Each structure stands twice: as structure tokens, then as C-alpha cells.
Amino acid sequence: MVVKSFLLPNTWNGRLMQRLEGGGCQVFATDLRLHIPKNTLFTYPDISVVCGEPETLGNDDWNLMNPCVIVEVLSPSTRVYDEGIKFGLYKDIPSLKEYVLIDAEKIRVEAWYLLEGQWEQKVFEDPDGSLHLRSLGLSIPLLEIYAGSKRL
Questions:
Q1: From residue 15, how far is each of 18, 34, 110, 138, 146 by CA, in Å?
Q2: H/E element holding 56?
Q3: Which of helix, strand or coil describes residue 33?
Q4: What span, in angstroms and rounded, lies between the C-alpha atoms of 128 and 102?
Q5: What's the rounded mean pLDDT across residues 95-118?
């Protein structure tokens, strides 16, 4: 389980960077902290995507404030927090358009899209299907997301 939890964000991070290269969006991994001003939360999402110029807290380049997409890989120890409390806090980020939860134990991706002020959920479980990241104009096959996760 631990191996899968680390492998998925690393695989995803590289694939997103390749797909977004030269398009004005940047992908950030877990070592970049996210600051949510409304509730003063600091957290470390597995992956954050910013389109346009990254906004940081003061002169601190390690505290990102304007992601448009956040990706979390669910593990047994983080699942409840990532699906509930953390998502509730992330909703306070004005720039956030999509929140993606990748299950590390089975092929299942849950995507939340902000559409006309309301969050709408779509679940992707068909291994032959694709996750649609609308704000980035990308469709990524689920088999590509889970590439390297041999135990799934």
C-alpha cells in the first residue's frame, strides 16, 4: 500500500508535466505547501496545478495560493480527511476549479468540478475510460493514471 501511495503521485506528476508543457500551466508536487487564506490552513496536496502566474504568500515561494486543480491520492489513513474535511477547506480557494481523488487500492478516480458555483461529482471506474480535466483541456486514460501500480 505504501508503495502505491507514493508511486501514483510521482507517476501523475510526470505525466501532467509532459502534457502541460509550454501551455502556461505548471504542476507542483507534494513538497510545495498550499495556503488557504480564508481559513488560514496550510496543507500539502499530492499535486497542485496552477495556470498563469503562481501566487504565493508574501515573499515565500513555498506557500502556493492559487491552484486550479488539486489531486490527492487516497490511502486508508488519509481517505476520510481528503474526501471530507480537506475538500471542505479546499472549496475556499477562489481559483480552484477541479478536485481529483485517486484511489490507491483500486481503479477509481473521483473528480469534482466547479460548474456555475456548484460542485459536481463524476466517478471514473472503467479501466478503459478516461479522466477529463476540463479546466486543463485534458483527458487522461485511467490505465495511464495507474501505470506502474502492478498490484491493482
A1: 5, 21, 18, 11, 11
A2: strand 56-57
A3: strand
A4: 16
A5: 94
Q: Is residue 124 part of a domain?
A: yes
Query: Which pLDDT belongs to residue 150?
Result: 61
Residue 1 lies in a domain: no
DSSP 104: S
Q: How far apart are CA 14 and CA 43, in angstroms?
A: 21
Position 151 in a domain = no
Backbone CA torsion sign across 23, 27, 33, 38: positive
**Predicted structure pTM score:** 0.88
* Domain CATH code at residue 112: 3.90.1570.10
CB 87 within 8 A of CB 99: yes
Q: Is 45 left (phi over 0), alpha (psi -120 to 50) or beta?
A: beta
Q: What is the pLDDT of residues 19-47, one digit of tens each?
A: 888 789 998 887 788 888 777 778 889 89
Q: Which helix (H) or strand (E) holds 114?
A: strand 109-115
Rounded to an integer, what distance in angstroms lies between the CA atom of residue 41 and that of residue 36?
A: 5
Q: What is the count of structural domains for the chain?
A: 1
Distance CA 37, CA 84 (A): 19
Q: Are 120 and 112 a contacting pair, CB within 8 Å?
A: yes
